[in-house]
Design goal:
This protein has helices at about 5-20, 25-30, 35-45, 85-90, 115-125; strands at about 65-75, 95-100, 110-115, 135-140. By secondary structure, the protein is of the alpha+beta class. It has two domains: about 5-45, Winged helix-like DNA-binding domain superfamily/Winged helix DNA-binding domain (Arc Repressor Mutant, subunit A); about 60-140, Alpha-Beta Plaits (2-Layer Sandwich). A four-stranded antiparallel sheet has the order 2-3-1-4. A hairpin with a 6-residue loop joins strand 2 and strand 3. Helix 2 crosses helix 3.
């Protein structure tokens, strides 16, 4: 269900997405609210699940992850009864940053990081392809990031 957002909520979301570490006082000044009103608004957005959390945007290559791959995964026809178990295993791998159930030939699209091509190959072969029910795995190596994850557009 889509949350009802007014113009002030949208300004808050725009500001917080641009600077997740902004203080409540600075945020309030930016959107022309009192600090207590601003705090209540942000808390409401958090409680309603609009704001899911706060985290640092760490450069993968700065901590040794030189390879990003997009991996498509198909589940064997006889294994669709195990979908939730397969998804739980996928969630357990820290190398998998994102996982989406998709339409088309494949069942899932994963975003995977690795230190190098060899470690990606080892992960795919020795870990992911060993998950019972995973039938087919195909990967595409990202050569260059053209546009990083962006803030969500919050206009009405």
């Amino acid at each position: 269900m889509t949350a009802r957002l007014d113009a002030i909520d949208r300004k808050i979301l725009e500001s917080i997405q641009a600077d997740g570490r902004i203080s409540n006082v600075d945020l309030a000044a930016r959107i022309h609210l009192s600090a207590p009103q601003c705090f209540r608004r942000v808390r409401s957005l958090e409680e309603r699940g609009v704001i899911r959390g706060y985290r640092a945007d760490v450069a993968p290559e700065a901590i040794g992850f030189a390879v990003t791959a997009y991996v498509s995964v198909s589940i064997g026809g006889d294994d669709f009864g195990r979908v939730r178990e397969i998804e739980a295993e996928i969630r357990s791998f820290p190398q998998i940053l994102e996982c989406y159930s998709v339409s088309g030939e494949d069942d899932y699209l994963l975003k995977v990081v690795a230190h190098d091509l060899k470690s990606l190959s080892n992960f795919l072969t020795d870990r992911l392809m060993q998950v019972p029910g995973i039938d087919d795995v195909r990967s595409m190596i990202a050569l260059e990031e053209i546009k990083a994850a962006s803030p969500l557009p919050v206009e009405a």
